[in-house]
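Board notes, transcribed. Complex of a protein with magnesium ion.
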Amino acid sequence: MQNSIALVVATRNKGKTSEIRELLKDFPIEIKNLDDFGPIPQVEEDGDTFDENAYKKASFTARILGYPALADDSGLLVDALDGAPGVYSARYAGENATDEERYAKILQEIKGKTNRKAAFECVISIAVPTGPALTYEARCEGVIAEQPSGSNGFGYDPIFYYPELKKTFAELTQEEKNSVSHRGKAFREVQEEFDKILIWIRQNMPVQEKFICSED
Ligand SMILES: O=c1nc[nH]c2c1ncn2[C@H]1C[C@H](O)[C@@H](COP(=O)(O)OP(=O)(O)OP(=O)(O)O)O1
Ligand SMILES: [Mg+2]
């Protein structure tokens, strides 16, 4: 391959990885997963916002591996729960809970409430090892279903009902979900800027990488 740089997708979530790989399929440099490397310490996602956590994951990974890295921090915000679980979405029923336990907790907590509006939010951070980063974000509105339905996707998808398509996210194919989801929307902007992002990465990579890249 002519380019020796690659972009590492810095997530340990298999569902996200699959969606992101599809959304990045036309990105003009090699895409690597964390699995392509040896064991890497886990970053603590202790920021107060999706922005902070996305940047922490992307910049930490970039620094440790010496490659540009892309991270996604996302979560579910339920109106009747004052925006919870929000940035705590991944830990909402305890560190080792399953997806089922997490969404069961939400269904339990909003039982009887008339306002079932909710939204998914997603922040994407693309960072280089020296620290600078680009940020993209998006939101997708829906309602919390009365009961879980569907087996596609991951996380809270079985309880996130998307009125426009009259289905939960777990009843959509990955392609359908990507066409409307918070992650899909954020990546639409990334896609529009593929060329710009590539130039930015090249300009911001440490000197020896830049040197290796310019083979002409
Ligand atoms: O499209 C989605 N469909 C369903 N659930 C979703 C979605 N997007 C985020 N979510 C939930 C999953 C997790 O409970 C939390 C994200 O937490 P977040 O820290 O960003 O991801 P994670 O810990 O699963 O993987 P990682 O940090 O390695 O990327 O929100
Ligand atoms: Mg996480």
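The chain is about 35% helix and 20% strand. The chain has a mean pLDDT of 94.
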